[in-house]
């Protein structure tokens, strides 16, 4: 490995004529780039791809993710969105964003562009895993998938309680057609079998 001098370096720079090899962690620490798509090419610090975007950050520009200052130009550790050219971020910050968002939701955190942003990040060595967003796996939105399941009439007539519901008949539970956060049994609100829409008092 050109970085640590130890054996077992199995990643080689793909630039023709370059004989540098390195371990993956050593390459990351010394500015090398490994691309995680198609032929999975890797490049040493001297031959790595550079962003082609002609943009420079204004004075006191901060990373849009961590809000810490960035360098005064694009570099290995300072990157910019190729679409809006106004979102600057550290490599480590955008890599963390990519791992959490996954391929489905990863996009520019400023302009939401995916068409230019994702291919450029892949070319620059950002790993974007094929996975669902981390925030969905952690159950942050589970409540959004829950359907309201109780009768909210001022006087519920069901002997089995407000939670009781049947598919048809007087104990069928209708949800408010506007907010869906209130419900009633047909009998509790004197709704006939032909009524298919109901709105709560608040709506």
UniProtKB/TrEMBL annotation:
InterPro entries in the record: EPHD, PHD-type_Zinc_Finger, PHD_PHF7/G2E3-like, Zinc_finger_PHD-type_CS, Znf_FYVE_PHD, Znf_PHD, Znf_RING, Znf_RING/FYVE/PHD
Residues covered by the PHD-type domain: 1-48
Domain RING-type: 63-112
Superkingdom per UniProt: Eukaryota
GO CC, alphabetical: nucleus
Signal peptide limits: none
PANTHER family: PHD FINGER PROTEIN, PHD FINGER PROTEIN 7
Protein name per UniProt: PHF7 protein
Provenance organism: Eudromia elegans
